[in-house]
């Protein structure tokens, strides 16, 4: 399946080998181990994430699900094991190479505090484009398009501090999607929102991701949120829970 | 931090008080028996006192900035006190008492350093000439100032600083200043500069003691307005520049820096204000130096026969070299003041990096290169620094010119001299000098030296301050890896 071009995209270095279509493993992790000092967070996790799927990673607090997401996104480097993105070994890349990968291929979404407080909504969304060298005017125009898609076009000139938590999160999703990433990593994307605002954000996020063919890896401890995924895996004590893993949870 | 600040201020104030208390001076070395000419000449004492007091300004700003690092620990302690049942008023009194006692401790420390210094540095030569005024008693009013007034003022300011703070049992809530800085302060600097430029010709045109007094008062008022506006208007300058650049910025580093300047101009302007004042005073003193040296030169040309075209004669002139030496000392003191003010800028930057580490970590996580964040941090200082230094330098220069005019004119002559041949008796000598042909007539003439703009001084002071501040600010980038540590994301989540 070819990903639709929603807006004029920036020139980003996409590995053609990745464009293998839905169904093949886009990201493969094998025997991931990670510790915070002497506290083990991941104890040999292996999983495959297929192109275009929405994967929910759930589990109790402290189980290692956020650490898994940060490793898969190339934000943390695992102590042992390997992570492949297509043919690339993410765990072998340098910090600057992983930064380029995150900027060009991935979108990352956190629970809160991810928008630059001094920038307006449109500037926050345009920031990844500016980092890619897009000029100010087209970058802002693209940002406004994405804000419109998430129903917050009236907030273009607002600062994050002047809008609600739900609106902030929609702006953050727009920022994560503005470069049309191949994979979107979302760490508790609705964790700081009330259930209504959370569901609205999730509904929009998953709809846009499906339209764009974006793979989504979403960490959550909330079963309602996990239900938005095509597949759900459960992490306990740094390992995949075999009794609950790989169940299809899409309603 | 409070105690260190108090000790530094005490040292400066006591040194100033001792210099102020040096008796006599002038040409009679017996009254001011010091090897250092700056201490010997009574006319220069006021300059030394002012320099010492000006040194206090960047010290206060530096310590004020550095003390913000300790704020979280103090906040936790105050919250615990409230949790234990103290009312907000009782907690405020506790803050005042703590600050007052810490200041008193610092004052005592500073006093002890001075007293020990008086003993160890008191080293008169065989003629009783001392390098420093270690024989001058500390004036009682200075002791009262540092042991009573300073702690009381410090306690008062500590309570005043709580006006934007709410002390609750669950923590200290700071109300962020949301009101934009007043643009009028930036305008006042420019208006003050224009006023000083207009005042100088007025002073030349008018004469009389009443006019002199009025001019002095108006001049002092305008200078104080300009200096005050430089401190408090630094935020306005930052906000105005930030807003203008943010509307046009196409680069992410420039956009982040300019928006930050526009949205929170107070973050760096606290430290920049002190730097601007130091530049203002330094360039002002450079202006006084130009006037003073031109005056000496004009007098030498008129009465001493020296020629401006004879550098060797000028270089060896003792009057000229004395004044040069005195101003060199002032220049060194002001360089120290600028360095301290630049250190306050560095502290402000480090504080901001630590305060914004969650945002910086997220930006780094989404792929923002660290270089972009580093450049944004430097631009945040550089954008207001360069125009601010330029404005402060111009203000300093026109202040000196407003005080002394744009040229030096010395008028002399109009008299005759007679040197009778040796061996003549007194009556014969008088008779000899009564013959007009034996007189040497010096016609009245005026030597005028224009006070050109010392571009070299401007470049050295302004350029040096900008370059030095930027280099020192770059040290803050050492903290960027810590501030963008991606594990911060997990810790804060």
Annotate the secondary structure layout.
The complex is a heterodimer of chains A (251) and B (493).
Chain A: E1 25-36, E2 39-50, E3 54-58, H1 65-72, E4 80-85, E5 88-89, H2 95-104, E6 106-109, H3 121-131, H4 136-149, H5 165-177, E7 183-187, H6 195-212, E8 215-220, H7 223-226, E9 231-236, E10 239-240
Parallel strand pairs in A: 3-8, 3-9, 6-7, 7-8
Antiparallel strand pairs in A: 1-2, 1-4, 4-5, 9-10
Helix pairs in contact in A: 3-4, 3-5, 4-5, 5-6
Chain B: H1 2-20, H2 37-40, H3 42-66, H4 71-83, H5 88-120, H6 140-160, E1 165-168, E2 171-174, H7 183-205, H8 209-232, H9 234-246, H10 252-263, H11 266-304, H12 311-316, H13 318-355, H14 357-365, H15 370-404, E3 407-412, E4 415-417, H16 426-433, E5 440-442, E6 445-450, H17 455-474, H18 480-483, H19 487-492
Antiparallel strand pairs in B: 1-2, 3-6, 4-5
Polypeptide structure, described:
The complex is a heterodimer of chains A (251) and B (493). Chain A has helices spanning 65-72, 95-104, 121-131, 136-149, 165-177, 195-212, 223-226; strands spanning 25-36, 39-50, 54-58, 80-85, 88-89, 106-109, 183-187, 215-220, 231-236, 239-240. Chain A is α/β, with parallel strands linked by helices and 251 residues long. Chain A has a domain at 52-74 and 105-240: 3-Layer(aba) Sandwich (Rossmann fold), CATH 3.40.50.300. Chain A has a six-stranded mixed sheet with strand order 6-7-8-3-9-10, with helices on both faces. Chain A is globular, with a radius of gyration of 17 Å. Chain B is mainly alpha-helical. Chain B contains 19 helices and six strands. The two termini of chain B are 33 Å apart. The A-B interface holds A 36, 66-67, 70, 73, 75-76, 96, 99-104, 106-108, 110-111, 113-114, 116-120, 123, 127-128, 130-131, 135-136, 159, 175-176, 187-188 and B 248-252, 255-256, 259-260, 262-264, 358-359, 362-370, 372, 486-487, 489-490, 492-493.
């Amino acid at each position: 399946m070819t990903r639709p071009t929603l807006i004029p995209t920036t020139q980003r270095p996409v590995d053609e080998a990745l464009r293998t279509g839905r169904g093949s493993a886009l990201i493969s992790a094998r025997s991931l181990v990670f510790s915070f000092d002497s506290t083990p967070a991941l104890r040999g996790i292996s999983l495959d994430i297929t192109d275009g799927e929405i994967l929910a990673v759930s589990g109790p607090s402290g189980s290692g699900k956020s650490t898994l997401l940060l490793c898969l996104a190339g934000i943390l480097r695992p102590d042992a094991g390997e992570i492949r993105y297509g043919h690339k070994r993410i765990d072998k890349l340098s910090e600057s190479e992983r930064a380029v990968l995150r900027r060009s291929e991935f979108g990352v979404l956190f629970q809160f505090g991810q928008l630059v407080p001094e920038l307006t909504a449109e500037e926050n969304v345009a920031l990844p484009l500016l980092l890619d060298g897009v000029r100010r005017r087209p970058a802002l125009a693209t940002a406004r398009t994405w804000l419109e898609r998430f129903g917050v076009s009236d907030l273009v000139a607002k600062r994050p501090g002047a809008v609600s938590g739900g609106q902030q999160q929609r702006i953050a999703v727009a920022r994560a999607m503005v470069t049309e990433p191949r994979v979107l990593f979302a760490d508790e994307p609705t964790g700081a929102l009330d259930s209504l605002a959370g569901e609205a954000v999730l509904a929009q996020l998953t709809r846009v991701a499906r339209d764009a063919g974006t793979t989504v890896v979403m960490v959550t401890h909330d079963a309602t949120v996990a239900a938005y995924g095509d597949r759900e895996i459960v992490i306990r004590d740094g390992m995949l829970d075999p009794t609950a893993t790989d169940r299809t949870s899409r309603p | 931090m409070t105690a260190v600040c108090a000790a530094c201020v005490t040292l400066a104030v006591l040194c100033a008080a001792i210099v102020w208390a040096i008796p006599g001076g002038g040409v009679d070395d017996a009254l001011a028996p010091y090897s250092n000419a700056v201490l010997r000449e009574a006319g220069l004492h006021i300059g030394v006192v002012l320099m010492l007091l000006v040194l206090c300004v960047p010290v206060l700003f530096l310590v004020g900035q550095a003390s913000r690092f300790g704020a979280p620990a103090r906040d936790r302690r105050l919250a615990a006190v409230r949790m234990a049942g103290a009312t907000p008023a009782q907690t405020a009194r506790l803050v005042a008492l703590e600050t007052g006692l810490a200041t008193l401790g610092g004052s005592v420390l500073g006093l002890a350093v001075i007293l020990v210094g008086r003993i160890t540095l008191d080293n008169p030569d065989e003629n009783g000439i001392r390098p420093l005024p270690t024989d001058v008693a500390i004036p009682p009013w200075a002791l009262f100032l540092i042991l009573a007034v300073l702690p009381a003022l410090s306690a008062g300011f500590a309570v005043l600083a709580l006006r934007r703070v709410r002390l609750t049992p669950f923590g200290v809530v700071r109300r962020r200043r949301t009101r934009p800085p007043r643009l009028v302060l930036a305008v006042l600097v420019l208006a003050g500069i224009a006023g000083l430029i207009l005042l100088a010709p007025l002073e030349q045109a008018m004469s009389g003691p009443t006019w002199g007094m009025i001019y002095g008062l108006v001049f002092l008022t305008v200078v104080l307005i300009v200096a005050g506006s430089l401190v408090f208007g630094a935020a306005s300058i930052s906000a105005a520049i930030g807003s203008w650049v943010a509307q046009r910025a196409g680069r992410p580093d420039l956009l982040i820096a300019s928006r930050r300047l526009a949205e929170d101009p107070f973050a760096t302007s606290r430290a920049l204000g002190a730097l601007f004042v130091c530049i203002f005073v330094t360039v002002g003193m450079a202006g006084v130096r130009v006037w003073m040296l031109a005056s000496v030169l004009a007098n030498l040309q008129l009465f001493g026969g020296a020629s401006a075209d004879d550098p060797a004669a000028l270089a060896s002139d003792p009057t000229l070299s004395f004044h040069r030496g005195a101003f060199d000392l002032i220049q060194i003191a002001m360089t120290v003041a600028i360095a301290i003010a630049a250190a306050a800028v560095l502290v402000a930057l480090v504080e901001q990096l630590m305060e914004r580490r969650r945002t910086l970590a997220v930006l780094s996580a989404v792929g923002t290169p660290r270089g972009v964040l580093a450049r944004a941090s430097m631009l945040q200082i550089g954008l207001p620094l360069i125009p601010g230094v330029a404005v402060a330098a111009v203000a300093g220069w026109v202040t000196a010119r407003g005080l002394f005019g744009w040229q030096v004119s010395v008028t002399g002559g109009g008299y005759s001299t007679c040197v009778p041949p040796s061996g003549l008796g007194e009556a014969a000598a008088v008779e000899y000098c009564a013959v007009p042909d034996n007189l040497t007539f010096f016609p009245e003439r005026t030597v005028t030296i224009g006070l050109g703009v010392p571009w070299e001084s401007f470049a050295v002071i302004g350029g040096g301050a900008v370059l030095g501040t930027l280099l020192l600010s770059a040290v803050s980038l050492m903290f960027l890896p810590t501030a963008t540590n991606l594990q911060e994301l997990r810790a804060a989540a």
